[in-house]
Specification:
It contains four helices and no strands. With 86 residues, it is mainly alpha-helical.
């Protein structure tokens, strides 16, 4: 990693993982995350598990098929795990 590239912490990665997996981040951030994943086995495992979860859930349930109270409950649970999520 060069001195000009941002350094990504484990906490940063958790906050950026969705955008990273969807390819919605700047190239410089992607490179910093890739560098971090190469050095941090815990985060590499976290990203692997997120990919598997996304694959398993893809097409399983649509927003339209989910009861509104179920969606709200899931969003509350997610927000409790990731307080920085809007």
């Amino acid at each position: 990693m060069s001195e000009n590239e941002p350094q990504i912490t484990c906490r940063d990665l958790v906050e950026l993982v969705t955008d990273y997996l969807e390819g919605q981040i700047a190239a410089v951030e992607q490179h910093a995350i890739d560098d971090h994943l190469g050095e941090c086995p815990g985060c590499a495992e976290y990203v692997r598990q997120m990919r598997l979860t996304i694959q398993a859930m893809r097409g399983l349930v649509s927003d339209e098929a989910m009861f509104p109270q179920t969606r709200d409950e899931l969003m509350r649970a997610f927000s409790a795990l990731h307080p920085s999520y809007p």
